[in-house]
Design brief:
The chain has 302 residues and is an alpha+beta fold. The protein has helices spanning 5-14, 21-33, 50-64, 87-96, 117-131, 150-163, 184-194, 197-246, 255-266, 272-278, 285-301, and strands spanning 37-39, 42-47, 80-84, 132-134, 143-147, 169-173, 176-181. It has 2 domains: 5-195, Homing endonucleases (Endonuclease I-creI); 229-301, no CATH class. It is built from 11 helices and 7 strands. It has a 4-stranded antiparallel beta sheet with strand order 4-5-7-6. It has a 3-stranded antiparallel beta sheet with strand order 1-2-3. Helix 5 packs across helix 6. It binds zinc ion.
Length: 302
């Protein structure tokens, strides 16, 4: 199976582990609040990302000094499940985020944990690794972060707004909430912020291609509009000339106007500029326009 765009973005983020402990704690916080389950009863992180599975134990070790109680074997493919069930470990984790282990029904983002800019980025990287996905830009523009904790969605929006010039939208999904971005520039900026530069570049290329296509389409439509105007005007002129001939008035027209009329009859699709160049001697476009206008008037009057 081909590796998805989303999987590549995650692999890229996993290439660097947090240097500072504050960031490791914050990145774990992002992982926990956006993972499959995080409560006093246990922690469960399920991921299909091989790279995320590789860094996850190291990340928790750096933040808390211990790792998971249950973790998949090295050669596991597909979904990999990591669990912490030891009450002592759970207590320590809950306390380090300022939660009372007796009351973890409504978990939220404990702001001091994400106070520093470095930690804000680490938190959102963790959130994306555990609960995020981004659509291949060839198929559509959508990036999302999914959490089972309602207040976390709202607080994460506020957090994104602190570091980015936009706020994600939110929606309810399957008992939880999703934060999402639909605007191509925002997805590009957010991936850059997370450190997924290659993925961001992929989005940028898709954006440039889209802009180019739009420009070409606009230009084509514009050309069509001009062409149809020229054709319409020529049809009116030809109708006027036919009328003048039918009424036997054509030969009475001044020679210059006759010359203009014949040029139009012989070149129904030519522009004014082209017709003007056919006159003997050649005249300007406004002068040509003037002659054709006079022909139309003559046809109307008589
Ligand atoms: Zn930090």
């Amino acid at each position: 199976m081909a590796v998805s765009f989303s999987a590549n973005a995650k692999a890229e983020i996993c290439r660097s582990l947090p240097q500072k402990k504050c960031c490791a704690v914050s990145q774990c916080f992002g992982v926990l609040l956006f993972c499959n389950s995080f409560s006093a009863d246990g922690i469960k992180v399920i991921t299909e990302s091989q790279e995320f599975a590789q860094i996850l134990p190291k990340l928790f070790k750096k933040a808390f000094g211990f790792s998971f109680d249950v973790q998949p074997g090295e050669d596991t493919v597909g979904k990999r499940s990591f669990q912490i069930t030891d009450p002592a470990k759970l207590l320590l984790i809950m306390r380090s985020y300022g939660f009372d282990p007796q009351d973890t029904l409504s978990l939220h983002i404990n702001l001091p944990v994400v106070e520093e800019d470095c930690c804000k980025q680490a938190f959102l990287r963790g959130a994306f690794l555990a609960g995020g996905s981004v659509t291949d830009p060839d198929k559509g523009y959508h990036l999302e972060l999914s959490t089972t904790h309602h207040s976390v969605a709202k607080e994460s929006c506020a957090l994104v707004q602190e570091v980015m010039p936009f706020i994600p939208k939110t929606a309810a999904r399957g008992g939880g909430r999703v934060l999402y971005l639909k605007q191509i520039e925002q997805i590009e900026d957010f991936l850059t912020y997370l450190g997924a530069h290659v993925a961001a570049m992929g989005i940028m290329e898709a954006r440039l291609e889209k802009e180019l296509n739009n420009k070409v389409n606009r230009r084509c439509n514009c050309d069509d509009a001009n062409t149809s105007k020229v054709v319409e005007a020529a049809q009116e002129q030809l109708a006027a000339i036919r009328l003048l001939r039918k009424k036997g008035l054509f030969e009475q027209l001044p020679e210059k106007m006759q010359q203009a009329a014949i040029a139009r009859e012989q070149n129904p699709e030519s522009s004014l500029t082209e017709l003007a160049a056919m006159m003997e001697p050649p005249i300007t476009k406004p002068a040509m326009n003037n002659r054709l206008k006079k022909l139309m008037q003559a046809a109307k009057e008589k």
